[in-house]
Structures are given as C-alpha cells and as structure tokens.
Amino acid sequence: MREILFCKTLRNLRKTKHTDGMKKLFCVSALLAAVWIGSAAGAGLCARAYEVERTVISEKTAVIDGKPVEVRLSGVGKTYITEIRLDVLQGGKPVCSIVPPNDFGFDPFIGFYEFSKGEPFLFYSAQSGGSGGYGFYNVYRLTGEKCRQVYDRAQDSAKNRFAGEFIDGCKMVLQNLNEKNSLTVDVGYMAPEFLKLIFPADCRPAKQEININDISIVFPYFNSAMGVYQLSTYRSVTAVAEVNRLGYISQNLELAEGGFTPYFTNFLIGF
Length: 271
Hints:
Blueprint: H1 2-14, H2 20-37, H3 40-49, E1 54-64, E2 67-76, E3 80-90, E4 93-98, E5 104-116, E6 119-127, E7 135-141, E8 148-152, H4 153-159, E9 162-167, E10 171-176, E11 181-186, H5 192-198, E12 210-212, E13 217-223, E14 228-239, E15 241-256, E16 259-268
Antiparallel strand pairs: 1-2, 2-3, 3-4, 3-5, 5-6, 6-7, 7-8, 9-10, 10-11, 12-14, 13-14, 14-15, 15-16
C-alpha cells in the first residue's frame, strides 16, 4: 500500500515542472523509499523519474531486395533532438538500429534515394545549429538485411583535403591536395575592409591565412544523364573572419565500390 501511494505521488510530481534541486531531492527521496520499502521496486522509482519520452519523428518506406523496408527516426525532445535512432524493420520485424555518429541536432531528416539503379539508400541529416551552419550527413546501405554506412560527412572532410594561399595581384590559389591540381581566383570582389587587411599595398599579400572549413552542406541530387542520384558537398572558404566568406568548394560524388568518391570539383562565388 505504501509503495502504491508513493508511485501515485511520483506520477503527480512528474506532471509539474521542477528545478534541478527538486529533481535531486526527489531522487534522494526515491532511494530512501527503496530502503524503507525493502525491495528493488523502490530503487526503480528513481530511474523511472528520469525516464524521457522517445517520439517517432519520421517514417519512410522503400522496397529493398524485393521486400518492403520501413525506417523510423525517433529521438528525445521537440526542437533540439537528442538520442536520435534509426530503426530498420522488414515485415514489421527489427533488422537493425542505427545510431548516427552525431545523434543530436535540429530538424533530423531521413529519405530514400537511388544512388544505384533499382536500389534505394537511406540518407540521414540533422543540423548542428552552430554559428558555422554545419550539418551532419550520412548514407546507409540496407541490402541483405544489413545496415552499412557508406558515407559520412566528417570522414569525407578528412579524406578529401584542400589548401590555399594568397598571391600577388589580389589573387588566391586553391589546391586540391588529393588530385594535385590548383585553381587561381581573383579575390578583388571581397569587402574593401578585408581586402586592405590581406593586400595592404599594391595587391601584395600580407601574412593572412586562408581557412578552408570542413564540409557543412551535403544534399542528394538527381543526375539525369546517369539516371541515379548523387551527392553534392560544400565547404566554405574564408579569411580573417568567418564573415568574410570568399566562396565554396563544391564537389560532386558518385557511388563507387566502398563508398562515395568525388569526380568533379568546382569553386563557387556568392554575392
């Protein structure tokens, strides 16, 4: 009877808002109740007091290996989502649970795209919400009742590297360190206050570095010539301050053995 009354009190308390101090006091009270009741049931009350509600945010279906596959994206929270999980089911039975490398963020999204003809892949994204505007992006292959990651934004950033430097003539040189080629860009279009800091006299560069950020944007696009979806990635190029954005290095990636590889690199300038 005492345990039943205590559980009712616990449920009533959950319906109200508490400060951290009240939560700690409540947890201590639950532990004392466990000792008083003399059973493991009371100890479980403290754990249940901190249980959070997981909600299904999105559900997508596709036919893979001739069978319907359902993916449920769930997490904790309403705006900023934590503990994100992707549950893959086939015929209502669990196949696997995917926890993304970064299992948190705003606006988590899942979608199916045929990066190979006749085979849907699972594309996942979430936004970090940081000042740099970074997102988290992953692609998973779900054939053979297995869940395999075939693309990760962080791994792509680390694998495909670029460098840059300013040179005479108010120009910069961007180098693709993987392909050993370069591109020279006239940067006279940047804001005058930054241009003077980088090229103080006669368009000759001072000791200012070019910052090439990690990939911040990835999205699937349909290549009509190939008849399949591919990935497009973007990483910003800045100097002196993040607000002085010189442009974006963009790469198109195609599915190859072992994952996605870039086949076209471009530099984009935004005004």
